[in-house]
Amino acid sequence: MIRYAVIGTSWISSSFIEAAKATDRFQLMGVYSRDIDRAREFAGEHKALYIFDNLEHMAQSDLIDAVYIASPNSMHCQQSCLFLNHGKHVICEKPVASNLKEAERMVAAARNNNAILFEAFKTCHLPNFYQVQKALPALGKVHKAHLNYCQYSSRYQRYLDGENPNTFNPAFSNGSIMDIGFYCLSTAVALWGEPKKVSASAHLLESGVDAHGSVVLHYSDMDVILQHSKVSDSFVPSEIQGEAGSLVIKQVSECQEVTLYKKNATKLNLTLHQENNTMFYEAQVFADLIDGRKSSEQYLQNSLTVARLLTDIRKQTKVVFPADR
Hints:
Layout (H helix, E strand, L loop, with lengths): L1 E6 L3 H13 L2 E7 L3 H11 L3 E3 L2 H6 L5 E4 L6 H9 L4 E5 L6 H13 L4 E4 L6 H9 L6 E9 L5 H5 L19 H13 L4 E8 L5 E9 L4 E7 L8 E5 L2 E6 L6 E6 L4 E3 L9 H13 L5 H21 L8
Parallel strand pairs: 1-2, 1-4, 2-3, 4-5, 5-6, 7-10
Antiparallel strand pairs: 7-11, 8-9, 9-10, 11-12, 12-13, 13-14
Helix pairs in contact: 1-9, 4-5, 5-10, 8-10
């Protein structure tokens, strides 16, 4: 049983805790919050045994083997390195870091301490994502892909009302490409690797982060077009177009449905059943990595590639974080 603790007491931490519980491979030992009363309340809700309001003490604890980090993006590097340097395994919410330099520092800490660093990008571990991968050869030569994720943020009205929520605050290394757009970008990297060239544009809010934008990933014989937004909704699926057919993916982050349209007009539903809490699959992979059933190298390389691309995209769109300085 892998003994773990969580940093962060939001809904996403609750979702991971439930997913980890469903695998029967984890035991929740501790909860960290800067607010000890909130840590106590959250620990009670999820039956955690210990509470912490000091990260150094938690990192030194012999009670835990691993940590799930769901703090703001700007804190990922410092917190991950603290635990990795104490020999703890880390599953860190996406994006793993604010920029490439931080991601490289985190990967070095993992390797130097023989610990697992795993980015919590759930999409590429879903059964229906594997269906997409398996179906790609049926498309023949692929020329175009459109990966689309636009979702009106529940915090946008707060921003419009003059507040400064984390979601639209550069101090927390946030914005559309770092949140919604991440799913599109990481999906492309998981399917086709690093592109030869990137072209990006975005519309920035007065706070300095991107509200929405578009990215074109140029490969040797195909383009992948990414559309992302935190200030509008889209109900258009994603699509991969080949000479012999097309794959249509409903809600790319969850891969809810996968449909293959062959050139001869045949339509095949490739959708498999998935757990309601789709974080279950990333929790399973994290456990496999800790148990030595899988190698973490490809995941680390993908995280570094995505961090490199995110850094390039923000440079092109002139989104600057304090972490960049």
